[in-house]
Amino acid sequence: MHGPSPDVLFQPLALGAIEARNRIVMAPLTRGRSTQPGSVPNAMMATYYRQRAGAGLIISEATGISVEGLGWPAAPGIWSEEQVEGWKLVTRAVHGEGGAIVLQLWHMGRLVHPDFLGGEAPVSASATTAPGHAHTFEGRKDYEPARALGSDEIARVVADYAHAATNAKAAGFDGVQLHGANGYLVDQFLRDSTNLRTDRYGGSAANRVRFLREVLEALIGVWGADRVSVRLSPNGETQGCDDSDPATTFGAAARVVEELGLGFLELREPGPDGSFGRTEVPKQSPLIRSIYSGPLILNSDYDAERAVAAVTAGKADAVSFGRPFISNPDLPARIQAGAEWAPNLNVPHSWYAPGPEGYIDYPALDEGSGSVSRGSA
Could you tell me which residues come within 8 angstroms of residue 359 by beta carbon, excluding any fewer than 6 positions away? Predict the structure, then answer.
């Protein structure tokens, strides 16, 4: 790596009650390797996470809180006892390497295809239809219209989040992160293009952040605020979800996070080549940084140099890396050594394909020699 030393990324950081040994965070990455039926984590997934435990913190792949909320083939869940037992393999593997891991809690809302729901319509903030195609076990299919959650149903969904958080604790995680980004259910409530409600959960930004607040309060009731975090994506359209005034909307969301005293906040701010939205829009992180005083993690399209610059300048306390961790299980070691990053192979097929290829077989730097060795399986 050219430019400033990466040493700033290797200072420890308190993320609430979680002590991160460095400031290189593994971002959540959907990989579609859980055992079916049942969406159960398995030993291969434990190997994958163990290989990447050198991160200061691992944020797990997005994990369904309920059958209703999960609409991605072979993504894992956290609603059943069998899933809890499967996740124990993962947390023990990460902790055995001295790492830390939190579980990202996911409800996809209108992005769940009826095929996953026995033909029933998905739920969302309002009766809308996402653009594009869903990934199903039978291939790509058009999204179908969602129905609006009734006011009396919202408490049930909040309770589903709390149940998932309780299961995450039983599975041995170090905390939980609420997935509030990328056009999924929480984001569908936050943004005014998908939240057309006229009750206390719709209209003003103060009302549209109410669902976010209620879910976070439920998670805090299980874990305590210092082991709860949230991921937001405050910039531009994402999977058909957009907002006419993101500064107001996400400023209100940041105030919720500040008032609740969460362990940390992660922001996904993709550039023009990001995987969800292609349009470069003004960054909201400076505004959010002025509102939220806790640890801030920035994500998307970072290389080592840009990560060093962001942390050195105080724009972020840590940086989370997604795709680079796919093909570089030892990414922190590579950054520290100034080594080249391995490219992703067979992309994007291997991101979501079943089996170990392109998942746990990427090479790792051989410590002390600068050569590479095959990742252990």
Answer: 31, 33, 44, 48, 350
Helix %, strand %, coil % of the chain (to 5): 35, 20, 45
Long-range contacts of range 78-82, CB-CB < 8 Å, 24 or more positions apart?
A: 78/103, 78/105, 78/164, 78/167, 78/168, 78/171, 79/160, 79/163, 79/164, 79/167, 80/38, 80/40, 82/38, 82/40
Looking at the chain, list the stretches that DSSP marks H as alpha helix, in order from N- to C-terminal side. Answer: 43-51, 81-96, 151-170, 185-190, 205-208, 210-223, 246-260, 285-291, 304-312, 323-327, 331-337, 349-352
Residue 218, phi then psi, degrees to nearest 5 = -65, -40
Residue with the two structure tokens 């199903």: 136
Residue of 49, 184, 201, 302 marked active site = 184
**83-98 confidence digits (pLDDT tens):** 999 999 999 999 999 9
Check residue 196 and report its DSSP letter: -
Where does the pLDDT of residue 144 fall: very low under 50, low under 70, confident under 90, or very high at 90 and above? Answer: very high
Taking only the tens place, the pLDDT of each residue in 17-43 is: 999 999 999 999 999 999 999 999 999
Q: Residue 283 — very low, low, confident or very high, per pLDDT cuts 50/70/90?
A: confident
184 is catalytic: yes
151-184 pLDDT, tens digit each: 999 999 999 999 999 999 999 999 999 999 999 9
Backbone angles phi, psi at 319, to 5 degrees: -130, 135
